[in-house]
Each structure stands twice: as C-alpha cells, then as structure tokens.
Design a protein that fits this description.
Order of helices and strands: EEHEHEHEHEHEEEHHHHHHHEEEEH
Radius of gyration: 20 Å
Structural class: alpha/beta
Bound molecules: nicotinamide-adenine-dinucleotide, zinc ion
Shape: globular
Distance between the termini: 44 Å
CATH class of the largest domain: Alpha Beta
Number of strands: 13
CATH architecture of the largest domain: 3-Layer(aba) Sandwich
Strand order of the largest sheet: 1-2-9-6-5-3-4
Number of helices: 13
Strand content: 15-25%
Helix content: 40-55%
Length: about 350
C-alpha cells in the first residue's frame, strides 16, 4: 500500500492506494478515532461488486454500517437526490460524528460529498473511489457538488475528506470505456506537470489497458500525487489549480455542443490535442511534442479529432466557460511535455483557425 499525505492546514488527510485497501479501511478509520456507526452511499452495481468486502472489513473493526443507494447516472447527481438522502439520514438518526463513505465513481463522490458537507453542517466524509477517474481526480481536492438544471456542478462546496481509499483491485471490473475516460485525466496530469509519468505511460499504456495491477498502482499513485500537490498550493482554485483545466476549455464546449453525448474523457482528449496545437501556434510548444501527445491519447483508446461541430458554436460554448476572464477566454497551454502555463492572450482568430483545421 502507498500513502500520500495531503497537507491542508488543520484538514490534512491521507490517500491510501493499492490492491486490497478496501479491506483495511476499518483499521485506518479506527486509527483516525472513528468508531460505531457509519453510512455508505453507493450505487446498486458498485454495492454488488464491492459493498460486501467493504462492510466485512469495517465489521472486523467494530463498525456498524448502513447502506443508502443512489441509481447510476449523472442525472441523479441532483438536489432532489440529496433531499432524499437527507431524509434517509434523518431516519437513520445520523449524528454530527457519523462518517459518510462515498463508495463509487465521481458521481457518487460528488453527491455523497455534497450531502456530507451540508447535513448537520457537515459529517465526516470518507472517499472510496472505484473508477480510475475518481481515484486520480474527483476524490481528491475537496470539490463536492450537485448539478442544477443543465448546469453541471452548479451547487457545491469545498469540503475535504477525512481519508481517501483507492483500491486498485476495484479497477479490474471497469469497462474499457471507463478506463479510457480516466486515462484522459491521467495523460492531462502528466502533460502539465510530470514528463516522467508521461514517459512511463508511453512505455506501459498496453499494460495499463490490460489492467495490470502494478502499472495501475503506479499511475494512480503518481497522478493522485500531482492533483494533491496542486490542490495543496491552491485549495480554493484561485490560481495554480487552473492548470488542471488543460484540455477542458475546448473540451467543455464540445461536451455541451454534444448535449453531453460525448463522454468527458473523450471531450478532454480532443481538447488536449487542440490545445497542444494552439500552444504550438502560439510559439510555445514544438511540433514533435504535439505528435507525442496525440499518439499517447490514441493509444489510450481516446479520440483526437474534432467532431463535426460548427466553429462558431464551439467559440460560443467557450465564452460561457467558467474560466472566461473579462470576455477573453483563458487557455492552459503547454510549454513542453510536463510544463503548462495559463494564458489570457490567445487571439480568438487563432483559436478559430485551430478549430477549423479538423
Ligand atoms: N469533484 C471533482 O473535483 C471532480 C473532478 C472530475 C470529475 N468530477 C465528477 O465526476 C463525475 C464522473 O465520474 P466517473 O467518471 O467516475 O463516472 P461515474 O461516477 O458515473 O461512474 C461511471 C460508472 O461506472 C460504474 N462503476 C463505478 N465503479 C466501478 C467499478 N469498479 N467497476 C465497474 N463499474 C464501476 C458506476 O456504477 C457508474 O455507472 C462527474 O459527475 C464529474 O462532474 C468531479
Ligand atoms: Zn476533467
């Protein structure tokens, strides 16, 4: 098992990574001073796959567990579901000290995290991410939220977990498309911050996609470490944390143009390639690095070509992006593989050109 400590003033916490950490969660939670009852929020599929192993491990350390279920799918990451969960927590007589364990992908992590952050002004939250995306991205950093209307993550909070348990064995049941979805964020993290991880991915992409436990553990450990490092320096998302949005400005515009028919990882993959080309056109990145990035993204089973969406529609989508500062769209650009910077100076005409070269 590997451990990353996220040091955030008084609210530091550990991320435990490795095969089998699910079974050891009880021991770690006892060490942290928890005892008695806890509530697991999960979906029916993840409950079926991992609920029992988690509960057994917790029972061995004297914990009583209740399970609250949420149907699968982004559409359930809503205030309505949160409202129902508040009722169920009341029926269970959950108290201020009752930990909530979010067992599942990013949808469960964000929703259960939001409920934990708000019920009785905050119950202890434990993240138990079971998708690659959740292990390397959504479970770390303390952003919790529900969607509102058509706006994603509209209502939310910053709320740090007490611990994160990322069990690499859980990734073995992930469908290939879910693995690729998470690999998009892994490649993003390497591209902005860690040339060594990028080279590791170039060497081991096939083993990763074949669910090799050692390779996946290394990937989760290093990628979670990158996110934790960035969040430590900028918990409230006022500066450095912006570089995590590499590929996301164009990616978000693609997602909304497709009415969320395009998966997040796929949209980010296409967005990363376009942003690399933009970086090159801005004179920041050499053309061989653009090719390297594109090749690695393809090998991860992700798309690289812009779909047939009219350029003005994409430009319009980007101007609605949260990262627009004073009408200029903010871009994260690459200087080299492993090094990113934020620019407010990209001429809109250049963006249009890059988007038009499909
Ligand atoms: N808070 C943040 O900082 C942050 C960052 C990135 C993404 N997010 C959010 O994360 C969400 C996406 O998360 P996701 O990609 O994990 O999708 P998801 O939570 O919808 O999970 C995908 C599917 O995989 C299934 N699943 C989960 N674990 C499994 C396993 N081990 N084996 C087989 N199937 C499994 C789930 O039942 C689900 O249907 C979005 O709502 C997004 O907004 C949040
Ligand atoms: Zn993302």
């Amino acid at each position: 098992m590997r451990k990353i400590i996220v040091g955030l003033g008084s609210s530091g916490y550990g991320i435990y990574i490795g095969p089998g950490v699910l079974a050891s969660a009880g021991e770690r939670l006892r060490e942290k001073g928890f005892s008695g009852r806890l509530v697991i929020i999960t979906d029916p599929l993840v409950k079926e796959l991992y609920g029992e192993a988690l509960c057994r491990g917790l029972a061995g350390y004297g914990f009583d567990t209740d399970i609250l279920l949420v149907e699968r799918g982004e559409e359930h990451k809503s205030l309505e579901t949160a409202g129902r969960l508040y009722h169920e927590l009341t029926a269970l007589r959950a108290e201020r000290t009752t930990p909530v364990l979010a067992l599942g992908g990013g949808v469960i992590g964000d929703l259960a995290g939001f409920v934990a952050a708000t019920y009785l002004r905050g119950l202890p939250l434990v993240q138990v991410p079971t998708t690659l995306l959740a292990q390397v991205d959504s479970s770390i950093g303390g952003k919790v939220a529900v969607d509102h209307g058509r706006m994603k993550n509209m209502i939310g909070a910053f709320y740090q977990p007490a611990a994160v348990f990322a069990d690499i064995d859980a990734l073995k049941t992930l469908p290939p498309a879910e693995l690729s979805n998470g690999l998009a964020e892994v490649i993003k993290s390497a591209a902005i911050r860690d040339a060594g991880l990028f080279a590791f991915l170039e060497e081991n992409m096939e083993r990763a996609r074949a669910l090799d436990v050692e390779v996946l553990e290394e990937i989760v450990y290093r990628t979670a470490g990158i996110k934790a490092g960035v969040v430590e320096k900028d918990e409230r998302d006022s500066g450095l944390r912006g570089i995590l949005n590499y590929g996301h400005t164009i990616g978000h515009a693609l997602e909304s143009a497709s009415h969320f028919g395009l998966r997040h990882g796929s949209a980010v993959a296409i967005g990363m390639v376009a942003a690399a080309r933009l970086s090159h056109r801005m004179g920041a990145l050499d053309v061989s690095s653009v090719s390297r990035l594109k090749r690695l993204i393809e090998r991860a089973g992700l798309p690289v070509a812009l779909p047939d969406v009219p350029v003005p529609q994409l430009m319009e989508g980007m101007s609605h992006d949260k990262k627009v500062q004073q009408r200029k769209t903010r871009f994260v650009l690459l200087q080299e593989i492993g090094r990113a910077f934020i620019s407010d100076e990209v001429p809109p005409a250049l963006v249009e050109q890059v988007l038009a070269e499909r």
